[in-house]
From TrEMBL:
PROSITE patterns: ATP_GRASP (PS50975). Residues 231-279 form the ATP-grasp domain. Coiled coil: none annotated. One of its GO terms (molecular function) is ATP binding. Keywords: ATP-binding, Nucleotide-binding. The keyword ATP-binding applies. This is ATP-grasp domain-containing protein.
Length: 364
């Protein structure tokens, strides 16, 4: 059983792993419905996450008379991790418990952990700095980059904190943890798709063919130290800034994340490896040839009636015809494969430009 803000990528990974997914998410888009054995919509929003009230009853409704192997959760639970422990009282949860989620997702907790383990981490503050120059404002437990902003005047927002800006490239490490040790799966480079209100909104990611061996070794040591201290298990991701001042750990995502699509493998399905790690079985690392990229296409303007589109291959998470969209809403996810990371990134961005003519402002 899959529970997430968007369950499509996890449902696809479950199918590649030979599993039959039951999906509970906020969208129930056409791709998710095609992949799922059954699916239900959860209450909540992209801004607030999944609503906690009644979550266990909703999942029980989805299960019916079936007996699922496990619940695998995606994004949407970081701000209210108690939901995970509530679900675990009814079902086997293949993932991190609320204690571990708090340890790595609470900004002050992560900062203290990094300091104790000598892992570089940007300075944070729970109160508004006197001088806002060089600071970012973030939502505790937020995901996807849309919650990151340049702080302005006015009152402090609840559940927000301030983090020093660090210059450099966004690098993400996908890894599998077993509660004691972290095993690196691979690295990706991420980019933003800025909007007027979300300058750091997630745009996409490309799987890297090469990354410094020295940096890989250092990151592996850091993630193993964090795993041993917090008990991380399963597929997780760590986001770094790699810049002039060196490597800085920005955050840990204690669950399968946005890069699952570009790292999953038919030969070595990652969701199967996720379950193996949690059950103490042998974990295999997929072998990769070439590079893959994925990116989100957003609409820059409101759409009163989303048009029917004959979606090409290498796209997913399609908006349903007739949907009403606000400016900045996601339209679909686009993929590309190539021999190099640079070519894959260029290809996926060009595909988005080509597709966007179907929903450009003023089009029928």
């Amino acid at each position: 059983m899959i529970a997430a803000i968007s369950g499509r990528s996890l449902a696809a990974a479950a199918r590649r792993a030979g599993l039959r997914p039951l999906v509970a998410d906020l969208f129930n888009d056409s791709d998710t419905l095609r992949l799922a054995e059954r699916a239900i919509r959860l209450p909540g929003s992209l801004q607030t996450g999944i609503e906690a009230d009644g979550i266990v009853d909703r999942l029980a409704e989805l299960v019916g008379n079936d007996d699922p192997q496990a619940v695998i959760y995606g994004s949407g639970f970081e701000r209210t991790p108690d939901m995970i422990d509530a679900i675990a009282r009814r079902f086997f949860v293949a993932g991190n418990n609320a204690r571990t989620i708090r340890a790595v997702k609470d900004p002050l907790s992560l900062a203290d952990l990094c300091a104790s383990l000598s892992i570089p981490h940007p300075e944070i503050s729970g109160v508004r700095p006197d001088d806002l120059e060089g600071w970012l404002m973030k939502l505790a437990g937020g995901a996807g980059g849309s919650h990151v902003a340049h702080p302005g005047g006015g009152a402090e927002k609840p559940d927000h904190y301030f983090q020093r800006f660090v210059e450099g490239r966004n690098i993400s490490a996908l890894f599998i943890a077993d509660g004691k040790e972290a095993r690196l799966i691979g690295f990706s480079r991420q980019w933003s798709a800025p909007s007027q209100n979300s300058p750091y909104r997630y745009g996409g990611a490309v799987r890297l063919l090469r990354y410094s061996k020295r940096k890989q070794h250092r990151i592996g040591e850091w993630l193993t130290a964090l795993t041993a201290r917090t008990g991380l298990v399963g597929l997780c991701a760590a986001d770094f800034i790699d810049g002039p001042a060196g490597l800085w750990l920005i955050e840990i995502n204690p669950r399968p994340g946005a890069t699952l699509d570009i790292f999953d493998s038919e030969e070595t399905p990652l969701l199967r490896q996720h379950l193996n790690a949690i059950r103490g079985a042998v974990v295999k690392r997929p072998a990769y040839a070439g590079s893959s990229a994925s990116a989100i296409a957003y609409t820059s303007h409101p759409i009163q009636v989303f048009p029917p589109i004959e979606w090409p291959e290498m796209t997913a998470d399609h908006q349903i015809p007739g949907s009403v969209l606000d400016a900045g809403d996601p339209v679909c996810t686009v993929f590309a494969n190539a021999r190099s990371a640079a070519t894959a990134e260029r290809a996926v961005k060009n595909r988005i430009k080509g597709l966007s003519v179907h929903w450009k402002e003023g089009s029928p």
